[in-house]
Amino acid sequence: MRLFKSASDINQFLLKKKYNRVSIGFIPTMGALHQGHISLLETAKKNCDITVCSIFVNPTQFNDKNDFDKYPITIESDVDKLEKAGCDILFLPSASEIYPEFDLVNDTYNLGYLETVLEGKYRPGHFQGVCQVVYRLLKIIPANFLFLGQKDFQQCMVIKKMLELTKIDTIINICPTLREKDGLALSSRNVRLTSDERKNAIEIFKALSYIKNNIAPGNLSDLKKKTFNRLIEKGFKPDYVEIASADSLTIINDWDGKTKLVALIAAFTGSVRLIDNMLLQ
Predict the structure, then answer these.
(1) Hey, what CATH topology would domain 2-175 get?
(2) Is 188-275 a CATH 3.40.462.20 domain?
């Protein structure tokens, strides 16, 4: 595996490869890697000539400084996992490589409705930060394909919107959420869970499954409310339990039985905020 820390060096290297029609698959991460990240890499290896992974904890997407300060940093373990998984190139930039004039970061993106609901509502400014870093990474890494995980369902839609706005010629490949045997979605934040919180965390998966097993055409308010209350009874502090269009993320209160749906949950267990989702058809 080849390591780059300089934006200009990796850009020049990859542009030469792309000029020679070598396809590039890119997996952007914030480190604390788990098997979900590795599965993205494995998918990229099957579909591209070269795989590139980045590790950069992006400060502009944290609306809570405490959350940024507590984000797990496991660089040595991450490098070892990527090497064993056969990653070709690792980009490990400093903040100054991504944001040469950090204090002047003011580029904004017209994300419309996507920025007003769910994660956009509860984490104001978060998606602007996501777009800022992904745009800058893609200007450095001329990827043919961008591999993202379905667990961050809304984020995938936001990045797709950003690519449309900026006309960056990169194709998004969304890969299924990987889960533990008990159903818990793999997440870098899981390492912050206490033993008891980890045991209880599967209730989010159970709540999503409850929605999937009980949904029917008509009004969905009662189903959402019951699921929300179930989480509270299990000791969670939910931000939201919602059912939305899988294509537009429009909140659905009355279902026609035909529209493709996704159930989405964000909830705190202790100080750790977990998100998950499930396609309902």
Answers:
(1) Rossmann fold (3.40.50)
(2) no
Strand order in the sheet with 89-91: 2-4, 89-91, 50-55, 24-29, 145-149, 171-175
Name the amino acid, one letter, at 213.
N
Mean pLDDT by 10 residues, the chain (281 residues): 98 97 98 97 98 96 89 96 98 95 79 97 96 97 98 98 97 97 97 97 98 98 98 98 98 98 98 97 85
Catalytic residue among 24, 27, 29, 37: 37
The tokens describing 137, both together, are 């990474």
| Domain boundaries along the sequence of the chain | 2-175, 188-275
Contact 150, 174 (CB under 8 A): yes
| Residue 34 annotated in active site | no
pTM of the model: 0.95
